[in-house]
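Why run this: before we spend reagent on co-expression, it is cheaper to look at a predicted model of the complex and decide which construct boundaries make sense. The entries below are exactly what would go into the expression plan.
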Amino acid sequence: MNDIAAKVLEGDQRSIARLITLAENGSPLAASGMKKIHPYTGNAYVIGITGVMGSGKSTLIYELTKEYRRKGLKVGIIAIDPTSPFSGGALLGDRIRMMDLATDDGVFIRSMGTRGMLGGLTSAVYDVVEILDASGKDLVLVETVGVGQAEVDVIKIADTTLVVLVPGLGDSIQTIKAGIMEIADIYIVNKADRFGVEQAVAELESLIDIACTGKDRKTPVLTTVAKENKGIVELINEIENHKKHLKKTKMFDAKRRKRYEAELVEIIRKRLMNFIFDESTFKGKVESLIDQISKKEVDPYTAAEEILGKILK
Amino acid sequence: MDQKIRVLIAKPGLDGHDRGAKIVARALRDAGMEVVYTGLHQTAEMIVETAIQEDVNVIGLSLLSGAHMTLFKDVTKLLNAKGLNDVLIIGGGIIPEEDVSKLKKAGVSGVFGPGTHCEDIVRFIRKNVKK
Ligand SMILES: Nc1nc2c(ncn2[C@@H]2O[C@H](COP(=O)(O)OP(=O)(O)OP(=O)(O)O)[C@@H](O)[C@H]2O)c(=O)[nH]1
Ligand SMILES: [Mg+2]
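The model came back. Tokens follow.
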């Protein structure tokens, strides 16, 4: 275990993969590795890619990665798909669009299930960003689950957030109104080979005009045909512009601080929940309180206070 | 601790059918596993690199064409070369009886022919998964 952190820092693929698994499983072994790598993090630029299902997020990530690799940069990819709330299983299919990146040792791809987290991310995503960062990746690209409307957690982790839409989808614009509007640093209308691009762009622009009054930066709208590698270089330039803007306005440090805040809260939340629901601590007590609530012998607030009272004593 | 069995379903070789692979992938998901699905035309190198990065417990190889012997063996050879000896390898497809024992010798633990019930594969994985 001692040298798993050291090997992660060397960029060893198996050690990276193993530490991710430990973190994802909430193993106590993960913490000691994570503690050791933290001093070596902070260099990777994190790009979040979100958008409606099937809009081309994975294909865009593939093309972006190809372009970054041409520049000699190393790329980590986290591809998140929904975990079934019924079985706990997940079908992780984003790699289908990234096939030939598998054998490039300057690229590390990890597919993850949401494992019960809402918001489009997964609980261990902060750990995985740190691990990929520490392993020497210049960029970490995070693909969220295909969004409906409330999955906006990606801004907690990304330096630049890309929101991907497609033409001809009335709901696509609906989605934006429902909350995605606030999180986009760059809009992408992908599948620009399809009918209705101009209209989609125009609708977006008008929404932005309404929302951006008073802001010092207008959210750009780009069109891409990811499948044909069109618009990718322009997208990379726009990401670079956003990065410069963040640094100039000191928003970069504020964003990073937000990420660490979210990470800290998540670690505490996870540990606290594990502590309360562990067999060796309060699981029995919790179960019996639930029974009492069911029988109206106690109310949920009193029950919660009883548990919390034991921890906070 | 929230450990889940992670499975890579890969389709090496050049034939273009992945219906069977997709059915198995869904069945394993419904059994609570995390299934990384990589699509058609995977080379042995791609499969092994993917297995490393995704830290899977199981690799399921689906094959229809006659080239299964070499492809399966390429994968197991590469896995051994990389020192990945805690990964369970299973195979599915139309594989003649006489090849089954050869495959098992080469390190493919379970071979599932046409007509296999998905529950049998789930049970086999649960029983034989190595870590
Ligand atoms: N016509 C057209 N199709 C595209 C384009 N980009 C991607 N596609 C196709 O759109 C489909 C979905 O692409 P993905 O990259 O898997 O989309 P995604 O957003 O990652 O999908 P989920 O992860 O399932 O939400 C695939 O069949 C792609 O080939 C494009 O620019 N034009
Ligand atoms: Mg995708």
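The first helix of chain B runs from residue 19 to 30. The first strand of chain B starts at residue 6 and ends at 10. Bring this page to Monday's planning discussion.
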